[in-house]
Specification:
Methylthioribose-1-phosphate isomerase; M1Pi_N; 11 helices; IF_2B-like_C; alpha/beta; four-stranded mixed β-sheet; 18 strands; single chain; translation initiation factor activity; Four Helix Bundle (Hemerythrin (Met), subunit A); Rossmann fold
Length: 364
């Protein structure tokens, strides 16, 4: 996608140094600075995942794949690769794409002689990235149909509410929840995006608003608590979010606060403002091994500092980090919640749009 009118992916290999490395857009610096971080070791990749230099379920998967490739620079033995896989999987527990990508890498490498594993690892990681781009493009195509239908019916600007960042920054390119929006904008459909700020890390305000602005898509940042009000007022036509994991039965695990958006959308029908709620995900985000998201998905608890400290740009252009809580205040910081399938209108995938109860059709 575009950054200052130049095409970028979020992650790419670089073979110009003595040893191969991986370069990523450092998302902890956005929106105030666009910086590329160079990652040369498995340990650095794990740190990048934990600290959210790279984030978003599909991108975490791609980063983990390249983490395995980096680990082959030290050793290609079975034991070393399996230990590397365990460390990567433990780095963030909720997004299923991470485990999926690591297991795919192991499956591809462990059947090969040690001497072939290093080149195969870099090749397989690149395939995972290329496939992610194609999956997201297909999600955009299927989601565009939904947006275009609303546009034809209402013959006015279509207002879409999203939460967190499920754009191209959360993937290798194009995004999941934002892919249909980009497709609609590119097709000339008049769309406007309500961008929930997404406390505590503000991925909506910092990342989604930034990338929509780079692409020229009209958008407005709102507080997280404003979404329900806008739905009551008939100012939201549909909700599209991404997900870190979707169960086989259609439960959607996404950034904390998504459940409240889904409840508000569901209740809007009572007021005569039917607001459909969609999750846009590639197939690797679907965990076919679990049926009950509330019982089976491990919810990541992140550090208190994310809630108690905020960073931003001061009037003079310098950056500052400030504490916003009373001294000694206890903090709880669950990073995700689960929206039960009964509140979900549909799951937008690379194969099409499925009602939660129809999701199993993807496996046939």
């Amino acid at each position: 996608m575009l950054v200052n009118h130049q095409q970028y992916r979020t992650i790419w290999p670089n073979f110009e140094y003595v040893q191969p490395c991986v370069e990523v857009i450092d998302q902890t610096k956005l929106p105030h600075a666009f910086e590329v971080a160079r990652i040369t070791t498995l340990a650095q990749m794990i740190t990048a995942i934990k600290t959210m230099q790279v984030r978003g379920a599909p991108l975490i998967g791609a980063a983990a794949a390249y983490g395995i490739a980096l680990s082959t620079l030290d050793s290609c033995s079975d034991r070393h690769l399996q230990q590397s896989a365990e460390l990567l999987i433990a780095s963030r527990p909720t997004a299923v794409n991470l485990r999926w990508a690591v297991q795919r890498m192991l499956s591809a490498l462990l059947r090969l002689p040690d001497a072939q594993r290093q080149s195969a690892a870099w090749s397989e990681a690149a395939h995972i990235c290329d496939e992610d781009v194609k999956l997201n493009q297909a999600i955009g195509t299927h989601g565009l149909v939904l947006i275009h239908a609303q546009y034809q019916q209402k013959a006015r600007t279509i207002n879409i509410l999203t939460h967190c960042n499920a754009g191209w920054l959360a993937t290798v390119d194009f995004g999941t929840a934002l892919a249909p929006i980009y497709a609609a904008h590119n097709a000339g459909v008049d769309v406007h995006v309500w961008v929930g700020e997404t406390r505590p890390r503000n991925q909506g305000a910092s990342l989604t608003a930034w990338e929509l602005g780079q692409h020229g898509v009209p958008h407005t940042v709102i507080s997280d608590n404003a979404g329900g009000h806008l739905m009551q007022q008939g100012q939201v036509d549909m909700v599209i979010v991404g997900a870190d994991r979707v169960t086989a039965t259609g439960d959607v695990c996404n950034k904390i606060g998504t459940y409240l958006k889904a409840l508000a959308a569901f209740d809007s029908a009572v007021l005569g403002h039917h607001v459909p709620f969609y999750a846009a995900v590639p197939s690797p985000t679907i965990d076919w091994t679990i049926d009950d998201g509330l019982k089976s998905i491990e919810i990541e608890e992140r550090g208190a500092e994310e809630l108690s400290w905020m960073s931003g740009r001061q009037a003079d252009g310098t950056m500052a980090t400030v504490n916003i809580l009373p001294h000694g205040t206890q903090v709880a910081n669950p990073a995700f919640d689960v929206t039960p399938a009964r509140l979900v209108t549909g799951i937008i995938t690379e194969q099409g749009v499925f009602a939660p109860q129809q999701l199993g059709m993807m496996q046939r």
